[in-house]
Amino acid sequence: MYNYCVIGAGVIGGMVARELEKYDRSVVIVEKAGDVAMGATRANSAIVHAGFDAHEGSLKARFNVRGSVMMESVAKELGVKYQRNGSLVVGFSDEDKKTLEELLERGKKNGVRELRLLDREEILAIEPNIGDGVTCALFAPTGAIICPYELCMASVGNAMDNGAELCLNFEVSAIEKTETGYKLTAADGRTVEAKTVINCAGVYSDAVAAMAGDTSFTVIPRRGEYMLLDRECGSLISHTVFRCPSKMGKGILVSPTVDGNLLLGPTAENLEDKEDTATTAKGISLVRTQAGEQVKNINFGKVITSFAGLRSVGSTGDFIINEKDGFINCAAIESPGLSSSPAIAEYVVELIRKAGETLTPRKDFIGKRAPLHAFREMTEEQKSEVIKKDPAYAHVICRCETVSEGEIRAAIRQNPKPHDIDGIKRRTRATMGRCQGGFCTPYLVRILAEELGVPETAITKFGGNSYLNLGLTKNRK
Amino acid sequence: MKERNLTCIVCPRGCSLTAVLDGDKVVSVVGNACPRGKIYAEKECTHPERTVTSTVKTADGSVVPCKTRTPVPKEKVFDVMKEINEVTAGNVLRIGDTVIENAAGTGVDVVICANKG
Amino acid sequence: MEKMKKNLVIVGGGPAGMAAAVAAYDKGERDILILERDTALGGILRQCIHNGFGLHRFGEELTGPEYAYRYEAMVKERNIEFMTDTMVIGIDRERTVTAMNKEHGIFRIEAGAIVLAMGCRERPKGAFNFAGTATAGIYTAGTAQKFVNMMGMMPGKEVVILGSGDIGLIMARRMTLEGAKVKAVCELMPYSGGLARNIEQCLHDFDIPLLLSHTVVEIHGKDRLTAVTIAEVDGSRRPIPGTEQTIPCDTLLLSCGLIPENELTRGAGIEMDRVTNGAKVNADRETDVPGVFACGNVLHVHDLVDYVSEEAAIAGGAAVRFLRGETEANTLIELATDGKVRYTVPERITEIKETKVFFRVGDVFRDKKIVVRAGDEVLLSKKKQKFAPGEMETVTLPADALRKAEGKTLRFSIED
User: What is the reported pTM?
Assistant: First the structure.
């Protein structure tokens, strides 16, 4: 019997679990997938929004503005790359300018600091590659970029380092109210019992709530398609460039990432299938067209990969965060969910307190976590010191991103441990470079099989049946 | 008289050859840039041959490259592969070591192509 | 940090790096160091276990590992120093090489001369923007080659190959021999990018269809690939609606071009050729940075390793002449192309002497001539039955002809 069971190891579940670990209570996280950060957290715009978008008085506005303020210090504590690069919402017409003025007013009401409108001259002064048709922009210096799955891995990992347990491949199929709390049953028959359940199940948060008897809302998946460009394109712009929302929708963004790549997207398409993360020719073509209007000189020949993510769009139009009988919903967390995540976690504790629990902070909680990318950012002298202690750090496995065997083995041993090649990719950047794993995948298979103590043929790309190899040659079993 | 168009595989130049056949006998070859092309066309029309390259497993569970020392009849390629798939080589190997003698009755040995151990 | 000094540092211990080292040694240089990132010398040849190597260089047909071993033996006979598992992470214009390995950590070498021989990589799947999900089972042909030939694993059982480059063709045969079913090879262009002999012996021998002017438009499957949809393309390489067909398969191999690995070269600010994606060089294979040479697939993608060895020997020998102050850096003749000829190597000539020029064409040309002009004057004209993009061509320009071109631009063209 745990005190808290968090359903879903995305960025919301991770931040909530870590927040709960600050108190003297036991926490278990159950996750349907074979790794953390596998839903919306894996594929989104990686933006910490300033907070001018959401309507005044909404949960989105409240948590976004608060989360945006908290994020820098949270990221620092967790060793997650964060960069306050500022954002621009660019307009192409007088009509757009009116919209930007409205956004400015809304932002001010929401409490966003330092917002101001820029004319073309002023935009060009800070973004020389802005599109030729851009006439005006709303500038938000507090906008920032972050790596969402790194934040998720770090928060889950930090929660685990402080005592939380993580159950992977635990797909909740039934929730039963018991005398002391809730009993969760997984599709494979495993069970977990906890006094309080926190539903952070992303696109499935409506289904999970329904299992506990709450059918007051639904969540639909909204697909967003993206393109990621080589690191040599990341310096094309320095700010995140949003498109002014219009009747045609919110439009896409063009943004550098904290790792120096250039990210374009997302499209917005409501779907029925909550697993459909396929890219489409139509979506990718829309991203190309819009991105080219917002920012010029994008070299589409340098696209490394295209991918799609699903946002959890709720039936109320706002985040759905509430508590009843020890069952807490953190549902329909679409954009600005990543930005809001630290504030949502803080609010969950508030809800628990309101429900009558007395929470005492632990003295032994360690909030700091060594960054996964520490070695990458060391000076050559510091690296040499590390190499002296562990020569594996001098053995480069991924040559495009210069990731060493030492970093890969450390990542495999650190909480939350990866079990597949994509898990290593998200933790170390190995395979994420120009050759896309062409050279290093076979080596990663070997290292991961060795670390996990399984045959090389058991290694998957991302769990399930995503086996990299389908057997051995020479009639071997 | 029958004509047969071939692509020479002797060297990377890949000459387009035309062989004129009288029954199953090659009467003339055109398109070849060197004498080897003529020999290839004659063989290809009468008894085509291929070098088989693959790997053999070793006692320690890895694989090492191997090949037939000389080309074998084309129709025997998969028979040779069957024997290659069955055999287990040692852990200390030198280029040219014979791993299968007279593979699939072709009279051709399969030899190791890389050093190991 | 450990610091070393070497007369000649060679970055890469594949066929190019080893041949450059051997040539430099044979010209009298003794202070040579080869840096290789993999666990052994040999480069990509170690996984190219098929035959067909060495006909020009050794007059016999060898497999890749055998060809590599010939050079490895030459390196070892000469006691040329080499480090494996060593990654070069930077070079600069002062010819300082920064590298890392388990033994020395991060270390620097002040080099008298550098030969770049890092080879090339395959165009990855991201470059294609396939519609569909990121399933397992999509590999570049070279990655599959490593799995099958080096690790004894089968990346798939039912295979479609996109691109008819030589590695793709070779892997069609390799997968078939190892028991997989190769269902089709799709090629975007109306001609194959591979050698004719490989289409013959790797596809025709096994009745594997080669679908020219076809591409993959969509991939299917959630965890592992289950099928690909292919379509015919029009003259501008766009899929033609209505021609789609879906082929069940568990594996898609990509063989759609090779890209020289020039991150180090670019990092040093060396002038690049936009067509080859390699450095611009003179006939010595010297880049615009004095004492830095490049050869093999890092300079331009070769079709035959024999030519890689030949070019590397030029670079290795020239590096020794540079160390002795015997090379010329001033450009006397620039080489230009008409587009039908895509590129030449070298791109400039700094010494008037007999010079062999490598070039590639951008389309298939039958019964045409390669013509070399200086101004209006035709210096050379050579007819050929067939020019193909997959094959590297050469012309040798005698010293007399070059003398006439001094101060001018040499224009290479394909003409009737």
Answer: 0.93
For residue A446, give its domain range. 375-458
Read off the pLDDT of residues C370-401 as tens digits, 9 standing for 90 and up. 999 998 999 999 999 889 888 899 999 999 99
Give the mutation candidate from A380, A422, A447 for the C interface (greatest C CB count, under 10 A). A380
Token representation of residue A36:
């953390």
Which positions of chain C have pLDDT values less than 70?
none
Domain count for chain A: 3
Which positions in chain A touch B63 (Cβ < 8 Å)? 473-474
Q: How far is B9 from chain A (nearest CA, A)?
A: 27
Domain-embedded: residue A436: yes
Q: What is the domain partition of chain B in residue ranges?
A: 2-46, 53-112
Interface check for B53 against chain A (CB to CB < 8 A): the answer is no
Q: Which ipTM did the prediction report?
A: 0.94
In C224-376, beta strands by DSSP E: 227-232, 245-248, 251-254, 258-260, 292-294, 333-337, 341-345, 348-349, 355-361, 365-374
Question: Would the CB atoms of C152 and B62 count as touching at under 8 Å?
Answer: yes
CATH H superfamily, domain B53-112 = CPE0013-like (3.10.530.10)
- A72 inside 8 A of chain C by CB: no
Give the mean pLDDT of chain A. 95
Could you tell me the pLDDT band of residue A214, with boundaries at 50, 70 and 90? Answer: very high
Q: Which of B11, B50, B95 sits opposite C201 (nearest CB)?
A: B50
Please check whether residue A469 lies inside any domain of the structure: no
pLDDT digits (tens, 9 = 90+) for C212-260: 999 999 999 999 999 999 999 999 999 999 999 999 999 999 999 999 9
Mean pLDDT score, B62-79: 97
Kind of pairing, strands A219-229 and A172-177?
unpaired
> Does residue A6 sit in the same domain as residue A98?
no
Same domain, A105 and A193: no
C316's tokens: 């290795």
CA distance linking residue C197 with residue C201, whole number of Å: 6
Burial-class residue C247 by CB neighbours within 10 Å (0-12, 13-18, 19+): middle
